[in-house]
């Protein structure tokens, strides 16, 4: 009579092995899932870093363009100042020329006065 109990016990042992394998497999799957979550977390951090880098790059580019525009504005003002200086030089040149003409006329008038002898 001990024979009928052995097959039932043998089936139970097989079920335990199946259960053990199932638990082991589930633990491995859970471990893989945990690693996948860690990878996903790292990917999320990488995206945040990338987002920050793009934002900083845009700010740097904006500052560079603003700086270039300011330099261009300053250069334009310098050109205007140079133009004004050139006009001042032309005015000075005309003034000197006019003064020389006046001086020449004055010199001729002086000669006329000295050479004029009414008596």
Task: Chart the SSEs and their pairings.
Blueprint lengths: L1 H114 L4
Write down the overall mean pLDDT: 83
Structural class: mainly alpha
Q: How many strands?
A: 0
Give the topology string: H per helix, E per strand: H
Query: Major β-sheet, in short?
Result: none
Distance N to C terminus: 180 Å
Describe the overall structure.
This protein is mainly alpha-helical and 119 residues long. The chain is 96% helix and 0% strand. It contains one helix and no strands. The protein has one helix at 2-115. The protein is rod-shaped and about 165 Å long. The termini are far apart. The model has no long low-confidence stretch (mean pLDDT 83).
Outline of this structure?
Helix content is 96%, strand content 0%. The protein has one helix and no strands.
Features:
119 residues; mainly alpha; 1 helix; 0% strand; rod-shaped
């Amino acid at each position: 009579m001990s024979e009928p109990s052995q097959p039932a016990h043998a089936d139970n042992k097989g079920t335990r092995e199946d259960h053990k394998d199932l638990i082991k497999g589930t633990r491995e799957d859970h471990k893989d899932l945990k690693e996948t979550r860690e990878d996903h977390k790292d990917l999320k951090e990488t995206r945040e870093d990338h987002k920050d880098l793009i934002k900083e790059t845009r700010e740097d580019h904006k500052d560079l363009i603003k700086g270039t525009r300011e330099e261009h504005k300053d250069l334009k003002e310098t050109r205007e100042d140079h133009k004004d200086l050139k006009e001042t030089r032309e005015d000075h040149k005309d003034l000197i020329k006019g003064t020389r003409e006046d001086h020449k006329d004055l010199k001729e008038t002086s000669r006329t006065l000295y050479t004029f002898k009414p008596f």
